[in-house]
Each structure stands twice: as structure tokens, then as C-alpha cells.
Design a protein that fits this description.
This protein is an alpha+beta fold. Helices cover 36% and strands 15% of the residues.
């Protein structure tokens, strides 16, 4: 048995199929959602009349616009606040709390 790094073990545990050219199809069992690009994804789901697939696999976090200091002041930038509020709204609307 060839020794494997932790990365190799994680990668290999998610491989569904590997093509002869080296292209790999992976199955990832967690769907990470953040506040910057998720509004477009949720809008696409709404327009298509689709629900989230495997709600239990969705992990959402506001990570790009969350202040690193002065938490008591909240999010001061209006665009940042809108992105975080929109993530909260979409997660609640799609039942992924």
C-alpha cells in the first residue's frame, strides 16, 4: 500500500470516476455558501422554480463582509450589510437554517 497524505485521502474518498485523460469527477458532500456570490445562485433557483438539493449539506457563512473588530457597531458598509442580510433572507426562505 502506497502511503498517502491527508489531502490524498480526502481527495480519493470523493472520487466518483477518473477518465483516461486524468479528468476527475468528484462528489462533495457539503455545499458551502457565502454572502458574495450566493445571491446569483439563489436567484437562479427561484427563476427555475427549484429548491435546494440536500438542505442538510448546506453550510452558510458570512465571511467576506463580517467585521473583524468593533462587532458592537455591526456592519457599517451598506453594500456589505445588504449582502449579509440577503444571505440570511435566502437561507431562511429556502429552509436551510
Amino acid at each position: 500500500m502506497t502511503p498517502q497524505t491527508l489531502y490524498d485521502k480526502l481527495w480519493n474518498s470523493h472520487v466518483v470516476r477518473e477518465e483516461e485523460d486524468g479528468t476527475v469527477l468528484l462528489y462533495i458532500d457539503r455545499h458551502l455558501v457565502h454572502e458574495v456570490t450566493s445571491p446569483q445562485a439563489f436567484e437562479g433557483l427561484k427563476m427555475a422554480g427549484r429548491k435546494l438539493w440536500r438542505i442538510d449539506s448546506v453550510v452558510s457563512t458570512a465571511d467576506h463582509n463580517t467585521p473583524t473588530g468593533d462587532w458592537d457597531k455591526g456592519i457599517q458598509d451598506p453594500i456589505s450589510k445588504l449582502q449579509v442580510d440577503t444571505l440570511d433572507k435566502n437561507i431562511k426562505e429556502f429552509g436551510a437554517l
